Amino acid sequence: MMSLNPVIAAVTERIVRRSRDSRREYLAKIEHAKRVGPHRGRLSCGNLAHGFAVKDRPGKEALAGDRRANIGIVSAYNEMLSAHEPLGAFPPLIKEAAWNAGGVAQFAGGVPAMCDGVTQGQPGMELALFSRDTIAMATAIALTHNMFDAALCLGVCDKIVPGLMIGSLSFGHLPVIFVPGGPMTSGLSNKVKSQIRQQFAAGEIGRDELLEAESQSYHSPGTCTFYGTANSNQLLMEFMGLHLPGSSFVNPGTPLRDALTRAAAERALRITEMADDYRPIGRIVDEKTLVNGIVGLLASGGSTNHTMHIVAMARAAGVVIDWSDFAEISAAVPLMARVYPNGTADVNHFAAAGGIQFMIRELLAAGLLHDDVSTVVGDGLHRYTQEPFLEDGALVWREGVATSHDTDVLRGVAEPFASTGGLRVLQGNLGRGIVKISAVEKEHRTLRAPARVFASQEHVLAAYQAGELERDTAIVVINQGPRGNGMPELHKLTPSLGVLQDKGYRVALITDGRMSGASGKIPAAIQITPEARLGGPIGRIRDGDMIALDAEAGALSVEVDDAELAAREPTVFDDEPETEFGFGRELFAVFRRNVGSAEEGACALLDAQPAAADTRTTARESEPAE
Questions:
Q1: Along the chain (626 residues), what's the average pLDDT of each consecutive run of 10 residues?
Q2: Predicted TM-score (pTM) of this structure
Q3: Distance CA 606, CA 313 (A)
Q4: In sequence order, what are the beta bridge partners of 526?
Q5: Cα angle vertex 483, ends 479, 486, to 5°?
Q6: Which of 451, 453, 441 lies closest to 478, judged by CA?
Q7: From the CB of residue 615, how many other CB atoms can be counted at a distance below 10 Å?
Q8: Is beta strand 176-179 parallel, antiparallel or unpaired with respect to 70-75?
Q9: What is the model's pLDDT at position 219?
């Protein structure tokens, strides 16, 4: 194994220095929490009696003392998410496995879990980002009973895993293992699905044909098979040592999936304070672990949503990360995977080619990951080069493949798809933002075109239908930030903009909102901060202003004199859409008023901890072109 890459070492050390005070304060808090709990013997008899009032007799006797460790199950099960439907069968497996291993498991609580696929392009999407904070609070409510010695978090998708993580870190003295459900088996290929969506956007096919294709794509229980935020979550949990090794991409409803769920319960009992290998989540999630997560995200071409989620999760553990850290790591980490939308393969193909185990093996050997970390299965990230199998009905782990089985999908560090990671940080007179270039062809990564400014994605689609965008255009959608309308994803725009690009027009999306991790092909400068609602310069762009985007160099600007730009009044629309009422949006006003910026994690629960000015580098300095 090579020595640690100097860029990875330098960024990690900078994060450690920047986080020294906040991390020390966090560790002191979880040490105090450990001293005052979670031992059930410290609860009053009345408290304790409520805690097991409906348990059967063996469980009641066990919970009355400290003889058996108790696992709290926190689940995001519902029937609206294909990825979460399998989780409904997990609690009985966990309870049986825990009892047989000498412990107890209780269903502590459920957390909300909205499906971005259902709400995409709908008013409910304006609650999506804030659902992460709601999930964090619901996780804390589930664990606050102080009955538990460890927890298992059952969740897979989008904002749900980050929310479970933030909530769990507020109980950082507890060991926590994340338990995935696995991806659905492969259906209609993502490439064909994308083509059919564009045909519908172009008016070439009808709704019946579109619905049939979508139903063939999303056809069974399990995670959607493209490499968006949900599957990026699963990869992150392995790179951060919070899953059992190799558990991310095992299909649901299989004997191996059930065996891994049982094994998670058994392992959770062995890492409690009552056992001899105490591994609280607040100690596992540290600066090195978080850097490993960023490396995995960038090397795999993962979701842009994690440029916010990782920051928020880090802050929950007292660690301060900003986009300059992403930029410098991206410049040092190669792009090793091509999974839709960055290619044509899906996550099942990725896993069959060697998957996470191959990636971790290669990145460790190249010195691009920290091996000296704690994980839920022991010390050292090298444990995650193993993958699980059933051998005569017993769960075993063996070393994963040393060479990729399909170099069109997965490659080693020596011959990657690109020499740098899949994300770029943008900087210029519009502020800072993010662009995912791994799915964008090189010829489309730069643009100089006049702006067309819109108040919403619905306004963009209306202009598209009217034929007003049949030219080179920088499409600017404002007031889509966390303070503006909760930062909905603008994935609904992708098929129409793809049609324009295929016609030969140079187009790009510029927004203070988000673009789904499932999106690609079109250069999208997203999460621009400061956002328009807080006076950011993106809100002072006018139709016809020339926009210059260079995704390779990490540059984004409007070609307007700085003084003139600053003197302009914010752009307003007479028919700007109402985003504060209906579909529950009025209930989330407190989040919109208190949420931090995208670079601070866009979280309303955590105090902002901006990095010191001298730690920031410009995107151009830190991210050379490939």
A1: 92 98 97 75 51 54 70 96 93 96 95 87 86 97 92 96 98 97 80 74 74 67 88 97 97 94 98 94 98 97 94 98 96 95 88 96 98 98 96 94 95 96 93 91 94 94 95 96 92 89 95 78 94 96 97 95 94 76 83 92 76 36 33
A2: 0.90
A3: 10
A4: 434
A5: 80
A6: 453
A7: 16
A8: unpaired
A9: 61
Q: DSSP string spanning 433-463?
A: EEEE-TTS-GGGSEEEEEEEEESSHHHHHHH
**Cis peptide preceding 530, ω within 30 of 0:** yes
- Least Cα distance to 531 among 461, 476, 492, 458 occurs for 476
Q: How far apart are CA 170 and CA 526, in angstroms?
A: 30
Helices marked H in 584-623 — which ranges?
Answer: 589-594, 619-622
Assigned token pair, 333: 């980490």
Helix (H, G, I), strand (E, B) or coil at 71: strand
Residue located via tokens 């933030």: 166
8 A C-beta contact, residue 423 and residue 517: no
84 residue type, one letter: H
> Rounded to the nearest 5°, which phi and psi values hold at 158?
25, -110
Phi/psi at 102 (nearest 5 deg)?
95, 15
| 575 backbone dihedrals φ, ψ, rounded to 5° | -110, 35
- What kind and span of H or E run contains 400? none
- Least Cα distance to 378 among 264, 279, 289, 248 occurs for 279
* 91-100: long-range contacts, CB 8 A cutoff, minimum separation 24: 93/258, 93/261, 93/262, 93/265, 94/152, 94/179, 94/261, 94/262, 94/264, 94/265, 95/265, 96/262, 97/261, 97/262, 97/263, 97/265, 97/266, 98/71, 98/265, 98/266, 98/268, 98/269, 99/58, 99/59
Q: Which single residue is written with the structure tokens 């193909």? A: 349
Q: Copy the structure tokens of residue 501.
A: 């690009």
Amino acid identity at 210? L
Paired residues of 374 in beta bridges: 379
- For position 340, what pLDDT does the model report? 87
What number of other Cβ atoms are within 10 A of residue 278's Cβ? Answer: 16
Q: 158: which 2 tokens?
A: 């989008």
Tally DSSP H helices, then E strands, for the chain.
24, 16
